[in-house]
Amino acid sequence: MSETTSILIKDTTILSDKIKKASILIVDNTIEEISNDLSVTDASKVIDGTNKITMPGLVNTHSHVAMTLLRGVGDDEELQTWLNDYIWPKEAKLDEKLVYAGSKLAMAEMIKTGTTTFNDMYFYMEETAKAVEESGIRGVLGYGMIDLFDDEKRKQEIKATKNLIKNSHNTANGRVQVAVAPHAPYTCSEELLSESKKLANKHNLKLHIHVSETQQEVNDLEKQRNQTPFEYLDSIDLLDENTIAAHGVWTTDNEMKLLKEKQVSISHNPSSNMKLASGIAPVSKYIKNDINVAIGTDGVSSNNNLDMFSEMKLTALLQKVNTMNAKTLPAQATFNMATENGARALGINTGSIKEGKLADIVLVNMNVPHMIPVRNPLSNIIYSALGSDVDTVICDGQLLLEDKKLLTINEEDAIYDAKLAAQQL
Amino acid sequence: MSETTSILIKDTTILSDKIKKASILIVDNTIEEISNDLSVTDASKVIDGTNKITMPGLVNTHSHVAMTLLRGVGDDEELQTWLNDYIWPKEAKLDEKLVYAGSKLAMAEMIKTGTTTFNDMYFYMEETAKAVEESGIRGVLGYGMIDLFDDEKRKQEIKATKNLIKNSHNTANGRVQVAVAPHAPYTCSEELLSESKKLANKHNLKLHIHVSETQQEVNDLEKQRNQTPFEYLDSIDLLDENTIAAHGVWTTDNEMKLLKEKQVSISHNPSSNMKLASGIAPVSKYIKNDINVAIGTDGVSSNNNLDMFSEMKLTALLQKVNTMNAKTLPAQATFNMATENGARALGINTGSIKEGKLADIVLVNMNVPHMIPVRNPLSNIIYSALGSDVDTVICDGQLLLEDKKLLTINEEDAIYDAKLAAQQL
Q: Quaternary state and partners of this protein (chains A, B) (predicted)?
């Protein structure tokens, strides 16, 4: 941002690691002060926070945002059929322009439903970076590398990632970070995986990868290597605190130990895992084992939206029924997954409302029938809210949504462009 | 309604048993004509249906709507603790005025999220009937009878139901129907259950009951009677096409046969069953066995909202992962559960958009980021939509919601009254 701005959120209910009533002063891109003594003269912009829950912007730790263009493609099909017969043939037709349109539409949706940071893996990521820069959201962007065990392809993929790092890493006032993103152990050669990790280490980047999504994938790897996916990845030194593994549905007890020891973060994607019948991830077991587990939406073809509020509720409900214990994953633990655990996974100073944190903040309207009464704001956010209750969004100190109106994206244009783009797939 | 009204929904995408583009003419409370030849001069009110999905109003087949006042009470607790320590002590303080306020708030929420018919079991149901009459929604209302095996209490409970029948059945132009509602086999004596069924038969009413919600309940009954819940209910002639059994989580194969033979309807409540860790109902097995299965939200304390769109998505996703088959419960089957199966369960001429059906119709806005592109409107409704996408609601030929604004309920008053009421519990 070129000029210093200040925003005061006055007299609000703050939901973070605990609930309190106060005002919040944002200066430039940082939460400067949280107190009851702030006055309207302290800031150039004042937002009335009464009747609102003010919470950290949500962190979506696994997405393929440009897949908005494929919304509704291949519903009610198995993962492999869905990929081979529906998704991949359409993805082969993607180009820069289409990815830009799909990304822009996704950002409109994410901002309107309270997501301020997302961790993405896809193609033509310079285009997604451009959309991030323009829309004001925060993105960790990885080019999804797939070599299918082909040497030539591997070189091209690594080159594409190197270009992305050069072109986009740490741009847009730091809102764009680049990650190294080999797609999965079953689509990437050992060489590609190893080179990926070296590249990530060299530039101090996160490594984002799909692991242990389906039982089939685990069985195949065990046949080939006599190792489970995380054991394999550990054997080639891929696992550490910079690794974000999406899914982790079929993780064994031995792998749990590895994940804890290596401080790997897991991105849990309940809608996708349920819709594609991949399985139910052992989220409560991750938490018991002190493994950092966050939440992701996955791409919209397997969801079919980017609403993190639905994903939070689903995360809690699915673990309760899966463990046959209603006490499993209470509201605060679920909330942490979608906020501070996500921030920790991505290594970004966001995910909670504290002085010194980045000003990534969402205000939720409580004055609607389905949020009344407000006995416990946290309960209302996890179990009652809809993504559409988000009223105001601030990211990096910039106002992106006010009274449900997008300020940095022309919504009508984004919809029009995405409709046209989708017709070409 | 005192005067004949007509509404034309012009040029819309109709989603019912199939998808088609047409206009819809409503005369009085009935769908008079569906065609492409209707003109704006045919009706006194014209609604522009372009960019909208027009679908039947959703049917919520199991609720306790006045429990909106208990939103957020006893989260993350087991069913029995939740009931004994949290819900029942507060319910003991309920009175007419509080139930009216809670019901009115619920109707605001239901209408805004596209529900036009609900099947309710609670206390002070004359108050809920009054709220139904005023708000224009359609309700099947049962007084929840619990005698705890006490003779005196049983007589009082039956008397309360008889009063409700006399006061409220078939009122509000038929929008209020009364059902006989013994709470559950574990809270009602055999005498109460038998008398309930006789009373239902005498007045040709539906019988609404909780059955087989938890494994504990099934185990207890088997110990006491050496019968499973549906076997027991069948042995006292309670099961027939007028029975709506809520939950049905632990239904055995033998019970499946009974349910089919007796044409019992099941109300599936996925959020509640997950949140209270009751279990996963065998929905796809019900469907395979040709048993009519519909969807309910249950009360908001175990959900915590009344949004049937969330419930539809959850129903599909939960069955897919539970059967480990992504093809299980495709979008159309899920849609049918929330519409025509619900209407069949309740014996009301609603749940689909066909000439001669009651005019219970919902228009959903497609022109929002998370509904773009619209490759398949059905997919967008089941997997992408939020309840807040509902734009227009018509029930019994009367417009209840237009441009997301409630026309028959003063939303501000409903919120204010419910907040005050909740403070008394």
A: Homotetramer.
